[in-house]
Amino acid sequence: MTETEGVSGRSAVVTGGNKGIGAAIVAALLADGHRVASFSRGGDAPEGALGIACDVTDAAQVEAAFKAAEEAHGPVEILVANSGVTKDTLILRMNDAEWDLVMNTNLKGAFRCAKRASRSMLRKRWGRIIFTGSVVGLYGSPGQVNYSASKAALVGMARSLTREIGSRGVTANVVAPGFIETDMTAVLPDEVIAGYQASIPAGRLGVVDEVAATVAFLASDKAGYISGAVIPVDGGLGMGH
Ligand code: NDP
């Protein structure tokens, strides 16, 4: 496919593509015919994707990983900044290290990747930047001051990118999952999961493919006029936020 026909065959990077939501995003982009590189600390990747070891908290590793991805797949056209961690605790107990780790991974890691990816996108005058945010970025969540602040900040980043480079064919959006069944949520106590489930209008937790389908759409040519948006995939949990 050519870029202007643009249905498929683009160079894509997914951070945190080795497992959970990221692995489903990798699979969805591969199914759309894209060439996909997955960044994670271990460098493992789902079948069909190029696995590259990259800790997004390290600027030099991000630069090296982009270089490797571009050598294999060409200039990056689609970035899904999906790596994320939690370090949950109540604010009175939250220390600087817990704040810094979450910010450095979820927010600064996304910034580093978006900055590096926009270079080739601006040159090509085509790009898709998608941040994995979270319903709690706008809804809030007790015990997640660091995490929700990091996810809320992605909204500001996507909107500023939209205003900064939106006229050059680059879109920047946030997909905001609600409660999705992955390793990240598996560690939560049963009563917390039951409490969430009771408050989700859909009456169930989400699955990774539901998030991935939304991301794949935003990465497509069809989504060229959607930018600066926060798209919830949360069964209605965060409605109105
Ligand atoms: P997982 O814990 O399964 O996956 C987290 C991913 O982030 C892994 O691939 C991990 O790779 C990667 N990662 C973590 N730290 C780094 C780092 N320093 N450098 C590079 N990669 C890193 O969680 P999910 O799949 O659930 O989460 C994916 C995204 O979705 C996250 O941003 C999360 O905040 C968000 N999200 C999840 C929700 C849910 O309910 N599950 C709800 C809302 C948002 P590795 O450890 O191998 O480096």
Going by CATH, the architecture would be: 3-Layer(aba) Sandwich
Q: Span between N and C termini?
A: 38 Å
Number of domains: 1
The third-level CATH topology is Rossmann fold
- The structure class reads alpha/beta
Count every helix, treating DSSP H or I runs of 4 or more residues as helices: 8
- Rg, rounded, reads 17 Å
**DSSP strand tally:** 7
What is the typical, i.e. mean, pLDDT? Answer: 95
Plain-language structure description:
- The chain is of the alpha/beta class.
- It has one domain: 3-Layer(aba) Sandwich (Rossmann fold), CATH 3.40.50.720.
- Helices cover 44% and strands 15% of the residues.
- The chain is built from eight helices and seven strands; from the N terminus they run E-H-E-E-H-E-H-E-H-H-E-H-H-H-E.
- The chain has a seven-stranded parallel beta sheet with strand order 3-2-1-4-5-6-7, with helices on both faces.
- Strand 4 (78-81), helix 3 (96-124) and strand 5 (127-132) form a beta-alpha-beta unit.
- Helix 2 packs parallel to helix 3 (96-124).
- The chain is globular and about 45 Å long.
- Residues 1-7 have low confidence and may be disordered.
- The structure holds NADPH dihydro-nicotinamide-adenine-dinucleotide phosphate.
- NADPH dihydro-nicotinamide-adenine-dinucleotide phosphate (NDP) binds at residues 15-16, 18-22, 39-42, 54-57, 82-85, 105, 132, 134, 177, 179-180, 182-185.
